[in-house]
Amino acid sequence: MIKIIFDKDKNCAMAFDEEKNIGICNFNVSSNTWNITHTYVDNEYQGQGIAKQLVMKVVNNANMYKTQAKQYNLSEGK
C-alpha cells in the first residue's frame, strides 16, 4: 500500500511503498505562497496517480496553513 507523508520542515510530500521512497513533491515558500517546484515518481510506480496524490497533499496542507499553492510546468516554461 502506498503511503503519502507531508513534511513541512523539509518542504515536501513523499510517497512510500513500505519503506521504499518512490516519489516526492518539493515546494518553496515565498510570502503567503507555496510554489511546487518538482514532482517525481519512480518509473515502476508511474500511471497510478501517485504524482497527483503528492501534489494534492501539498495543496491540502497549504490550505490548512492558509497559504496558496502553485505548480509550475517547467517543461513548458510556465
Tags for this model:
78 residues, alpha+beta, 5 strands, elongated, disordered C terminus
Describe the biggest sheet?
5 strands, mixed
Give the strand line-up of the largest sheet.
1-2-3-4-5
First and last CA, distance = 34 Å
Number of helices: 1
* Average residue-wise pLDDT: 88
Structural classification: alpha+beta
Question: What share of the residues lie within helices?
Answer: 10-25%
What is the CA-atom radius of gyration, in angstroms?
Answer: 12 Å
Q: Count of DSSP E strands?
A: 5
Write down the overall geometry.
elongated
Low-confidence stretches: 74-78
Order of helices and strands: EEEEHE
Strand content: over 45%
Structural commentary:
- With about 80 residues, the protein is an alpha+beta fold.
- It has one helix and five strands.
- A five-stranded mixed beta sheet has the order 1-2-3-4-5, covered by helices on one side.
List the helices and strands and how they pair.
Layout: E1 2-7, E2 12-17, E3 20-30, E4 33-41, H1 50-64, E5 68-71
Parallel strand pairs: 4-5
Antiparallel strand pairs: 1-2, 2-3, 3-4
In short:
By secondary structure, the chain is of the alpha+beta class. The chain has one helix and five strands; from the N terminus they run E-E-E-E-H-E.
